[in-house]
Amino acid sequence: MSYNTTKDILPHAIEITELKKSFGNNHVINGFNLTVKSQENVAVLGQSGSGKSVFIKCVIGLVKADSGSIKVFGKDILKLKQAELDQVRTKMGFLFQSNALYDSMTVRENLEFPLRRLRMNQSQKETDKQVEEALEDVGLLNTIDLMPAELSGGMKKRISIARTLINRPQIILYDEPTTGLDPITSREINELMNQVHEKYKTSSIIISHDLSCIHRTADRIILLKDGINYTEGSFDQLKTSTDPWVNAFFNT
Ligand SMILES: Nc1ncnc2c1ncn2[C@@H]1O[C@H](COP(=O)(O)OP(=O)(O)OP(=O)(O)O)[C@@H](O)[C@H]1O
């Protein structure tokens, strides 16, 4: 993937400035900066324990950042009142590493769930149409009446992507999208992520350890180390870096 001029003229999807988060004396995020242009896919890569999960939780509001700003389409979500925050959050979809499907609900019910919360006055016919379209997007319309326990790991990931898509987010945050999947299924999930990007023109942040996933899906990679941006670049730039730490990361 490469930059194109359209991405450069549209407003930024996400702009994070000097983000900080500590737990007691453990300064996990120490002034991290990240910009995601419209329709850009940015991966955040770092060693285990470097703070990737804390960072993404700050962005979705599961963890409260100590300071800094997180602007989503120009609005600093750390300063918004609840109603405005809820509004901005409708533009964002989050793919949990664990998939977070409800085991006691069918695939259809799992997909209806986020719709019910946001579109209370919508007709059942419209809901059915949206659920079916989201399942078609991930190639699994035939699983609509199955329970999560009846699905493979790759299918669960696809259904989770369908559930993320159902509210038509403009930004998708992917937390370790291929963890626990075999290489073939991982490749299929990466292809699906790229299809989603092409069809819905989404912007994304991808947190991953999986270099193949990052290579296939990210326009740009930021390395997180000691809570700050250690370096950034394209996959090929980082793979050929002469920095010993970056080199060890990409070529071990
Ligand atoms: N709720 C919490 N309370 C206290 N410390 C926390 C909390 N959440 C995370 N931490 C600490 O923050 C640091 C970063 O953890 P985090 O889970 O973000 O790392 P990570 O880069 O996502 O690791 P991995 O790749 O292994 O998932 C760790 O030292 C962890 O102990």
UniProtKB/TrEMBL annotation:
> Gene3D superfamilies of this UniProt entry?
P-loop containing nucleotide triphosphate hydrolases (3.40.50.300)
Q: Name one GO molecular function term.
A: ATP hydrolysis activity
InterPro entries named in the record: AAA+_ATPase, ABC_transporter-like_ATP-bd, ABC_transporter-like_CS, P-loop_NTPase
Chain ranges of the ABC transporter domain: 14-251
Domain of life of the organism in this record? Bacteria
Q: Pfam families in the record, alphabetically? A: ABC_tran
Q: Does the keyword Ion transport apply?
A: no
Which keywords does UniProt give here?
ATP-binding, Nucleotide-binding, Transport
Spell out the PANTHER family in the cross-references.
INTERMEMBRANE PHOSPHOLIPID TRANSPORT SYSTEM ATP-BINDING PROTEIN MLAF, PROTEIN TRIGALACTOSYLDIACYLGLYCEROL 3, CHLOROPLASTIC
What is the protein name given in its UniProt record? ATP-binding cassette domain-containing protein
